[in-house]
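README: folding subset

This subset contains proteins for which both the sequence and a predicted structure token string are available. Records are stored as plain text. Below is the entry for Uracil phosphoribosyltransferase (209 residues), shown exactly as it appears on disk.
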Amino acid sequence: MSKVTQITHPLILHKLALIRDKRTGSKDFRELVEEVAMLMAYEVTRNLQTEEVEIETPICDTTCKMLSGKKVAVVPILRAGLGMVGGMLKLIPAAKVGHIGLYRDETTLKPVEYFCKLPQDIGEREVIVTDPMLATGGSAIDAIAMLKQKGAKNIRLMCLIAAEDGIKSVTEAHPDVDIYTAAIDKELNKNGYIVPGLGDAGDRLYGTK
Ligand code: PRP
Ligand code: URA
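--- output ---
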């Protein structure tokens, strides 16, 4: 069964409040989303494997630990997920980046697929899917299904705000995928927006409305 982790570090809570505030413009919104993604990356990668390595410091030989095993792929769901990639790469600069293009039809709220480009060795990597908003869960469910169809096996989902309905749907569809979020909001409004949420993440990131 999926594990759901809510990351409530005070710095994340503070920045998330600024992100939610409708007075925050695109420039600050973009910077804050990137900063929160970077802070969350610390927790999302907590269980990556390490191995012992021999290092020579200027003083003596010693044994240290470095990352081992599977490498990471960050896969944003376009467009809004792209806003989290810079922050992730600050902490995991060697990660490869895949892209999945999906938009939610405004009437049916069903995701429509328009792009998919992934690292060739996606099946060998720890995959972190990024999307600030998990609303009905339709987009994340489809993106994860696309990843699995291309061979990905170890997938985790990272968002800023998740609605309870979206969490339930994703965990039912993909019980092997753990979810990391900074906030869990109660409900969706009649247009499928998360309440209280932050509005339309893509539009706020890129100034398109
Ligand atoms: C938003 C968001 C998610 C999706 C969440 O994208 O970034 O991908 O909606 O909704 P769901 O859980 O109900 O599927 P949107 O479709 O607005 O596209 P955009 O990022 O290009 O603006
Ligand atoms: N997509 C968004 O950008 N915001 C929501 O609240 C729901 C879906």
